[in-house]
Each structure stands twice: as C-alpha cells, then as structure tokens.
Design goal:
By secondary structure, this protein is mainly alpha-helical. The chain has 7 helices and 4 strands, in the order H-E-E-H-H-H-E-E-H-H-H. Strand 3 and strand 4 form a beta hairpin. Helix 5 packs antiparallel against helix 7.
Length: 185
C-alpha cells in the first residue's frame, strides 16, 4: 500500500492524465483508474488513421458507411473511459450524421461491398457531393467539440481533433479523381 505522500507524488507526476476514483479520499486511492493516457489516446488516433486509410481505398459511394463505422468503433473504444466523454460525443455526432446520409440516399441497385470482414452499404453516386459536404460539416463540428476541451484532457483531444480534421481530403479527393477521369475519358 502506498503512503499518502507517495500517492500525492504519483498524482503530480501524471499531469496529462485525468482520474476517476471510486473513493476520493486518499485512503481509497487503491481504486484509482487512469482515465486519460497518452497510450490510449495514441490507440484512438491510430484507429482513426487506419480507418481513414481503409475508407480512402474504397469507391466513394461506400465511403459514407465506412467512415460511419470507423467513428462508431472509435466511440465504442472511448466508452469505458469517463474522461473521454466529449470525444464520444464528437464521434457520435459524426456517426449520426453519416447514418442520416445513408438513410437519405440509399442505393438499392448497387450491392454492398465486403472488405476486411466488414460490409459497407452504398449511397447513390449523385449524392456523393452532398454526403461529402455533410461529412465536412460534421467533422468541423466534432473538431470544435474536441478543441473546446480544457485542463489535462486538452492535449489528448487536440491530438484526436487533428486526425478528425485531417479527413477533409477523403471523399473530396475521390470527387476530384472522378472529374479528372471524366475529362480524360
């Protein structure tokens, strides 16, 4: 069992971590859980980056569902950490927006895409531009939610926001590619 001064020293050496303890007294610190950590934030960032890479590699009509699933999985990963509440909120906002796009513009004529053990539903090809705009707005709003964070979680949310904001090229890059192919063809 750690002495009280040693517990305080441990707390002071972890300035970027948020804590959730079942008992706030020093005697109850054995129940201390680090809710924010550089390692976990890195895992979330990596999950988002890998999801971005996966979604960029598939046709644009499937990307809405791909990104919806990426943000759903990332939000689920944050679920067990109370200090990542704003991150869950931001990811849920993106997921809900993309789910609405899928419902609004389903493409019943195109079969779902199966890749890497996942299935992606398509949207209508002429809705890709509208979907990209909705996704851009949702990402901007989510980034704002993340960047409003204060205190020790600020640095964690800034790292996550950098990845969320980096998605700007996703669907838009496919649109540019399609336009170039049309001009060449």
């Amino acid at each position: 069992m750690l002495s009280t001064p040693l517990k305080i020293l441990v707390l002071l050496t972890l300035p970027t971590a948020g804590f959730a303890a079942s008992d706030r007294s020093f005697g109850g610190m054995q129940n201390l859980q680090i809710a924010m950590s550089d390692s976990f934030t890195s895992q979330v960032v990596l999950q988002l980056q890998e999801g971005n890479d996966e979604c960029r590699a598939i046709p644009s009509v499937y990307q809405v569902d791909c990104y919806r699933q990426v943000f759903r999985r990332a939000g689920s990963a944050l679920q067990k950490y109370p200090d990542y509440k704003e991150g869950r909120k931001a990811f849920r906002h993106i997921e809900t927006t993309l789910k609405s796009v899928l419902k609004q513009y389903p493409d019943k004529a195109t079969p779902p895409l199966r890749r890497n053990g996942r299935t992606y539903k398509p949207i209508q090809p002429d809705a890709v531009k509208s979907a990209a705009a909705a996704f851009a707005r949702a990402r901007a709003e989510a980034t704002t939610i993340l960047l409003r964070a204060q205190g020790p979680m600020k640095i964690h949310y800034e790292r996550i926001a950098a990845v969320v904001g980096s998605n700007k090229l996703i669907i838009r890059s496919h649109l540019l590619m399609q336009q170039m192919l049309r001009r060449l063809g």
